[in-house]
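hey m, so remember when u said the tokens were messed up on ur end? i reran from scratch. heres the input so u can diff it against urs
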Amino acid sequence: MRKRFSIDQLPWWKRVRDHRYIRTILFIILAVFLYTSMIGNIIPETLDIRLSQIADRDIRSPITTENKIETEERRSEATEAVSPVYELKREYAENQVVKVNDIFELVRRVALEEEEPVEGVEEAATEEEKREEQLAYIQEVLSSGTSNDLSEETLLTLMEATESQLRIAQEATANAVYEAMGEQISIRNLQDVKQSVDEQFAISTVSNRLLEAMIEIAQFAIIPNYIYDLEATDRQRQEASDSVEPVMIREGQLLVKEGEIIDYEIYEQLRVVGLLDDSFNPYPYIGLALLVLLIVGMLAYYLKEAKTTVQHNNSHLVLFMLIFIVTLLFIKMSSLLEGIGLIGIGFIVPIALGAMLLTTLIHPRISLFSSVLFAVIGSIYFNNESVGTFNFTYGAYMLLSSFAATYYLSQSARVSRILRAGFFVSFINILAIISLLFMRTVQSGWVEIGLHIGFAFLSGFLAAVLAIGLMPFFEAGFGILSPSRLIELSSPNQPLLRKILTETPGTYHHSVVVGNLAEAACEAVGENGLLARVGAYYHDLGKTKRPQYFIENQQKMANPHDQLSPLESAKIIIDHPYDGVHLLREHKMPKEIIDIAEQHHGTSLLKFFYHKAKQDSEEEVKESQFRYPGPKPQTKVAAIVMIADSVEAAVRSMQNPTPEGIESLVKKIITDKLEDGQFDESDITLRQLSQIAQTMCETLNGTFHQRIEYPDESAKKGEKKE
């Protein structure tokens, strides 16, 4: 019996490709490549410019930032434009009237109360001394309360006035002060108000001397009532400052025109946006590192979760990395073409190359996700003529071009279709270019538009040519079984398929039916249906070595197994998968096809010969002698081909296949193999097994549908019923 193959038998350089750390190393390599390839587009540009120098080209701002110096100047202007805030203190008038009344009351108490000595005034020897003491007392009291601005003449006049005159003077003076202070009195017009206060006195019952005293007291009492409000002024000035919008220098803003003299204001703007700063700025480097980390992290997570061969096959991951990096290299080289000064030359970038290769060799889902990353990275590569970090025009162009290639090739991935995909991409590129050019504020000339359209057309054509040229190298170097390669292998003109058809026609028909069943089942569970079909075509290639020992090829001949012992018959049957593997390897067939041929029986038991051996022999029969040595199916596709192979043979042997009978048989076969452990290594789920059973039943019901019974007259005429 054949020994089961073990991966430990492989040399170390083949085993290391399955090591889990290889994926981490690959993503680190990709991250280093991305960082080094984009750093030149991220490093801030600095200019060697001096004051009063003439600009040799237009200079635009690379960033959006605030011109803090200009903003502060405008805020200072707004603050200075705010006038001081004054407040009218109406209560001052009442306070000063009270002060006037206090003066008159003091004089009245000192001058008119002669019978009783006034506290603080000593009794004088003479009348003159007494007056002087009273005057000194009044001046002392007034100076302690406010000030001593009233003249002695005014105070003596009040002291000598009669009670009635004093009352009239008090009322008139208080009214004059109140009326005068009813208006706004500031420091500036205070003297004018005091000079005009005499107009408030229109009485003739007092002497001129008393009137002058009244005027002096009124002038003394009048003070400014329109006071500067510091708090309100500061508040309004702060509001005015806050209302000034920051002076922003926008990304792409023209700072200086070619031939313009660089004055101090322009020089400061260049300094603010960092074009004159030659000191080391770490932030762009940190930002790029974070962007690369984000891109690689998202890519690693997506490839890990995507249900494609890249998820577990490190060889396919290496292939993906190579395609990804090769595509970025073409984008980078195309971006350098902008330096030659030819209008629109950058749009010749064959961005669809990556999408074509990934769709054809790996999976459309991988291509779509990668297309987004190509657009993001490409928009950085092409930022030489852009004022910002990203050139969104090129980003949108590359995204649409890649999506177009993925969409067209996802329908069919024949090599001949790739060239047609190139023309389809060229058409989409032209539409994208026209739309992007027409959306500009400044319209381009027809010559410029024509150049852009020409380069956009060449982009799709070059991508197709490069994809066709590179694909054979990737397929041969990584053993990739692309859809186009599978289609070629499914052609009846293939030598091995022709060998099956000519030498074992029954096996060929069986393989075709198995292929139909397996393809439908694979598509139902999201697996590669085309691989299942082609693998089914070759899975029984080993039967060509001894075709007469297999029942589907025994036409009008005796069964040779009748002349052999059960053990000899079992050995012949068990050998056919491995005989087929030997032939497939001789013809250098893809590994996936070889694996299906080798694993389509797993370690199943040849029940017929096993039970026959037990009946014929009195000795104990070892079950292991009647089992295939394996290996068991390692993939879902191989497991599905195993099920389809058993189902087709079993249904073909049914005398009268009905939908109910077919369904019962299919479920029994799947259950038996599940209980026998044939699916243990294929990672197939119970839910998927249920979907597979349902799909195969539908396919078989369409194949073994009930025939139409013709009228009896046809039988009378000797016609056969279908």
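this time it looks ok to me. Residues 446-478 form the longest helix (33 residues). if urs says something different then somethings off w ur setup not the seq
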